[in-house]
Design goal:
41% helix, alpha/beta, 133 residues, 5 helices, five-stranded parallel beta sheet, binds manganese (II) ion, 5 strands, single chain
Length: 133
Amino acid sequence: MTAAGPLVLLVEDNEQNRYLATFLLEAKGYRVVSASDGAQAIDVARAIVPDLVLLDIQLPTMDGYAVARALRALDQLARTPIIAVTSYAMVGDRERALEAGCNGYLEKPIDPETFVQDIERIRAEFLRGGSPP
Ligand code: MN
């Protein structure tokens, strides 16, 4: 028996993207809890203290940058990497995500061949880096 896989908080308002990301992550042994908006994401994050947050940037009400800043303000998430997932293709988005407290950045559309691998690379870099941003 192996230990339970890493716990992921998936913040995504699009049902199809949520379904695909959950499918790919669960296939690799991750446990996935989803939230579809920022306020819900913050509540869930406090409750479950995830090992990783996947954060859509284009969300209703509160955008992903604001969510990232709110999550970074939580002491219990100091050891949790936040990965922005966005279809924005504008110059400066990566910098904006990193400034907001994200530790990495993935572009949509999700590539099923590389999605989990890319997440694992960013998480490993974060854990090696030691201190939170
Ligand atoms: Mn969205």
